[in-house]
Design a protein that fits this description.
Elements (H helix, E strand, L loop, with lengths): L15 E5 L4 H12 L3 E6 L2 H11 L3 E5 L5 H10 L3 E6 L17 H17 L3 E8 L23 H26 L4 E5 L15 H13 L3 H4 L1 H8 L8 E6 L4 E6 L9 H15 L8
Parallel strand pairs: 1-2, 1-4, 2-3, 4-5, 5-6, 6-7
Antiparallel strand pairs: 7-8
Helix pairs in contact: 1-2, 3-4, 4-5, 5-9
Length: 293
């Protein structure tokens, strides 16, 4: 496992993957590797033009469909267009952006990274045949879930703690989803991953000095997007990957390297907060999950 690469992906012919944010960065690399392994890949992108450029490289195994995770009407429209899939990869996200609101009034980072994917997963879950993989980040460790002000309406907004909250929410969601799937007797699995410190265009969109600092640091400490996508691809394709697992890089304090099972902080395993966040997410979005029970 310590040297697992895209060459180790088992034959994916006959399987369908939906990858959000597949127009660039980690999502694009994941889509390329999956298509090369024979999978049918739906690139779920806000920027259809960029997505189409990626899909053109992949041939007939790839198609692009528009979804804007910051607009729940768009998420619903996309979900309605999907007939069935084996794996949903919740990859898209925004990082450390200035205070903005989604179409539905949510703070942009929690709205896109967590609530948008919460809705997408809920609407697609009864069509998923194998697993759901949700992208988190080592930055979940700086996050705290504020159930009384999830959308930064009363607190003084701070972009990095807001990002940390959204990435912690991703992990709480992934773990809670696994518990609920298992309790219902479903064979569908929920896993999470993080890319370590990978060079992607996400870092250039903070609209702050952080982007300049990361651009200077990338050549020295960042691993490639191809390497950063490996934990997500492992979680999405390895047949015996265990539900509830969290995959990340193996070296240099999980900043780089080949994928392995990693641990997350105590907050991410708080079952009470996970249940409360789930209930709040359903209330905010109007999407209630059906586990067939």
């Amino acid at each position: 496992m310590t040297t697992w690469t895209t060459r180790d992906i088992v034959d994916q012919r006959g399987r369908t993957f939906v990858v959000t944010g597949a127009n660039s960065g980690l999502g694009a690399e994941a889509a390329k590797a999956l298509a090369k392994a024979g999978a049918r890949v739906v690139l779920a992108c806000r920027d259809v033009d960029k997505g189409s450029a990626v899909a053109a490289e992949l041939g007939e195994n790839a198609e692009v469909r528009r979804v804007d995770l910051a607009d729940l009407a768009s998420v619903r429209e996309f979900a309605d267009s999907v007939d069935g899939l084996d794996v949903l990869v919740n990859n898209a996200g925004v990082m450390a952006v200035p205070l903005r609101r989604t179409v539905d009034g949510f703070e942009m980072q929690i709205g896109t990274n967590h609530l948008g994917h919460f809705v997408l997963t809920g609407l697609l879950l009864d069509k998923v045949r194998d697993r759901v993989v949700t992208m988190s980040s080592a930055m979940h460790k700086i996050g705290t879930i504020d159930l009384d002000d999830l959308n930064w309406e009363r607190r003084s907004y701070r972009r990095w703690p807001a990002y940390g909250q959204s990435k912690l929410a991703n992990l709480l969601f992934a773990y809670e989803l696994q518990r609920r799937l298992a309790a219902s007797g479903s064979t569908v699995k929920s896993l999470a991953s993080h890319p370590g410190y990978a060079s992607t265009n996400l870092q250039s969109h903070t609209e702050s000095i952080s982007s300049r600092v990361m651009a200077l640091a990338d050549p020295f400490i960042a691993q490639s997007a191809e390497m950063g996508a490996l934990p997500m691809l492992y979680a999405a394709t390895v047949p015996d990957a265990i539900g509830g697992s969290y995959l990340g890089p193996s070296s240099m304090f999980e900043t780089r390297g080949y994928p392995k099972v990693v641990s997350s902080n105590r907050k991410s395993h708080d079952r009470s907060v996970a249940r409360q966040l789930w209930t709040l997410s359903e209330q905010l979005t109007g999407v209630n999950y059906n586990f067939g029970g």
